[in-house]
Structure formats: structure tokens, C-alpha cells
Amino acid sequence: MPARTQMRHYLLPEVKTGVITSDEELHGEPQWQEGPSLSSARLGRHARLISRCSLWFRSLGPSVICRRMKLATWNVNSVRARLPRVIDWLTKNAPDVVCLQETKVEDTAFPHDEFRALGYQTTIFGQRTYNGVAILSRAPVTDVVFGFGDNDPEARYLVARVEGIRVASAYVPNGKAVGTDKFAYKLDWLARWRRWLDAHARPDEPLALCGDYNIAPEDRDVHDPVAWKDQVLCHPDERAALGVIKAFGVHDVFRNHTQDAGLYSWWDYRQLGFPKNRGLRIDYMLCSQPLASRCTSVRIDREARKGKEPSDHAPVVAEFSA
Fold this sequence. Notes:
Layout: E1 5-10, E2 15-16, E3 19-20, H1 23-27, E4 32-38, H2 40-60, E5 69-75, H3 83-93, E6 97-101, H4 112-116, E7 121-125, E8 133-137, E9 141-146, E10 157-162, E11 165-171, H5 181-200, E12 207-212, H6 225-228, H7 236-246, E13 250-252, E14 266-267, E15 279-280, E16 283-288, H8 289-292, E17 295-300, E18 316-320
Parallel strand pairs: 5-6, 11-12
Antiparallel strand pairs: 1-4, 2-3, 5-18, 6-8, 7-8, 9-10, 10-11, 12-16, 13-16, 14-15, 17-18
Helix pairs in contact: 5-7
């Protein structure tokens, strides 16, 4: 009779459709339980089974890690000028991940400490005076990408993987006016974005393209479609370029939850744009189907646009189930 060996079994995490079901199972200490005595032969079979399970989990890649998440995107129109308002909003709303646009600050001057005090890791792609994007996350980030890799000097695109979700913070060029060089740059930027997606992303993985798109997708996203017809932010060429981005396999999750018109994310500072609700919906999240199917709610936080010295944009907040 071969000697019998006492073995302690690691209880494998319960998995439902590829989702790890608790933080402790993923990051905590293994929960050990004393098992029955095993013969050497049975011990070998168990070891081989555990090895195969380990290889299977690794083969699933990062997209298996799917948890509940509250994700926000906000063009803050200068993170330093708006810092007290941003800190107050984060404290009240406690999103897990926040994509910021138009931070208007170089990396060395970004207010890292203030966000770290709230428990956020800061990933930034900054630029002095103009542009600038950032991702704030309570969880560690990996696979960070700055820009499209084509030497464009403008800091407009930042990507990171957070808890198995690939998150992008994008600040699409405004375009200034139809027919200008800036409008041509905007269309070219959108075309380069689609090429980047084709080369570096997958529509079958959890993907969230968040940001200020500077395009109202439809007339119902515009307070006065007649006045804005064929103008920058509403021009058919811009909307067609946005359609090419969507055709990659991403969906406007806001429209998965409401079909109402008159819901906007940006209002001009001038001519009482906000009090009269003369706005446009130009801030949103385009999500791949694996993530869009988990989206339980999306809202535009109009309250954040009120008060003294606000950004001209409101935050957009989406929640995702595990």
C-alpha cells in the first residue's frame, strides 16, 4: 500500500459565463480547506486537473475579469480651473473609472495628489493650454496607449485596460467651421481612429470609447436642428465619419435606455444657453456588444452643469452589471 498523503485543496472560483464572481476570489488569499487523504495516484490526477484549469483560466485573457462598474466621461474644460467641482462630484458620485477630456495641463502640473487622496490612480496624456485627456481609476490599469502612434502632437486619445475592460478617453477635434483646415483635420482624425481600432482593438472584447465626440449623432440630439443644419458638430460628413466608427462594432449605450429628444451634454456659456436648454448631446460612450449588453443605466448629470464656474459640459455616467 503506498503511503497516503494529506492534501489541502484550493477551492477554484465559481465562474458563471466566464465571470469571476468576487474580489476575494480574484485578488485575495486562497481559501484553503482540508481535503481527504489522497493516494499518490489520485494526487497526481488532481495535480494534472488543477494544472489544466490554470491553463484554461490564463487562456481566457483579461476579458474574463468582469465586475460591476460605474463609468463616467466628462469634458471638464480645464481640470485645474474646475478642480473643486470635480473633487466634489467624485466624492458624491464615486465612479469606478472616469474619463476626462480637455484637461488643458501638462503632465507635470496635473493634480495627481488630489485625485489619489480620493483613491484614484491617474493616467494622463496632457498638453499645455489645449486638449489633454486622462483616465482616473480606482483599480490598477494596464496596456496604456497614448495617441494613435502616428506622431500627432495633439493629446486627444488615451486607452487603458481596467478590470478587463478596455477604456478610451477621446477628445475629438472641434473642427471650428465647415470648409476649414481644422474641419479637414477633424475628419482625418476620425478616419485615423477607425484605422487604429481595426489594427489594435476587437469588437468581441469589452470596449468603451468614451469622450467628447464634438458630433451630435442625430437631429434629436440638437436643440434647434434647423439652425444647426450643415454646421460644424452637425454636418453630414461628421455624422458619416461617426457612423464609420460605430460600424467597427460599438453602440451608443445612451440610446439603449432612452429614445427621448431634448437631452443634452453641452450648452454654450453665451446667450443663456444652459437656462434655456439650448444644447447638444456630443458626449457619450460607444461600447462593444459584450459591454453594451451589461449596461444597466446611462444618465447625463445635468446638475453638474449648474452653479458657479462650471464646465460647459455635463458628465455622462453609465453603470454595468457583472
